[in-house]
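Regression test case RT-17, inverse folding.

Input:
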């Protein structure tokens, strides 16, 4: 990159007196000065070129135009790029459609998943409720079974007692009949 030094031309009138043909004449002319700064880093004997800004802009424009001509792409390369751009746009369209389809399918799947999860939670709640009911029914069953066992034992004891009473009464009858028969025989 070229380092450019920017400065403003200063102009002032300079007068000189000369003797011409025995007469003193005063000549006046313009003197130009281009002040430079120490920060411009120029050496004392270094040569510099001063170009007016208007000419400088023309030079830059000419350079830019020449580079533009060098940079103009070949028509075949441009056609290839346009073809590749069309292909990429088509692929982008296809990918966009498939992406939209996948997003829609994902949304439907998520909705089904939420519904199934809600059903599962509902069924788990009902299952817990039924388990609790089953436990209470099982406890009632155990109580009834215990009561039934107790009743069966009582029935057996009553049957045993009644059969024993029955046998006793039969025995008593037979024994009383025998006694009577014996008494009658006597």
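Golden output:
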């Amino acid at each position: 990159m070229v380092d450019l030094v920017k400065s403003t031309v200063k102009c002032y009138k300079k007068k000189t007196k000369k003797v011409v043909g025995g007469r003193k004449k005063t000549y006046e002319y313009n003197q130009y000065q281009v002040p430079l700064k120490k920060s411009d880093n120029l050496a004392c004997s270094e040569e510099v070129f001063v170009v007016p800004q208007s000419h400088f802009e023309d030079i830059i424009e000419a350079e830019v135009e020449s580079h533009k001509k060098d940079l103009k792409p070949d028509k075949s390369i441009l056609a290839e790029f346009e073809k590749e751009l069309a292909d990429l746009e088509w692929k982008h369209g296809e990918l966009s459609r498939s992406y939209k389809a996948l997003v829609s399918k994902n949304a439907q799947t998520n909705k089904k998943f939420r519904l199934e999860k809600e059903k599962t939670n509902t069924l788990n709640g009902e299952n817990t409720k039924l388990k609790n009911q089953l436990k209470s029914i099982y406890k009632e069953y155990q109580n009834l079974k215990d009561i039934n066992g107790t009743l069966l034992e009582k029935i057996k004891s009553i049957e045993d007692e009644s059969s024993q009473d029955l046998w006793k009464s039969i025995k008593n009858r037979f024994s009383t009949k025998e006694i009577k028969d014996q008494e009658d025989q006597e």
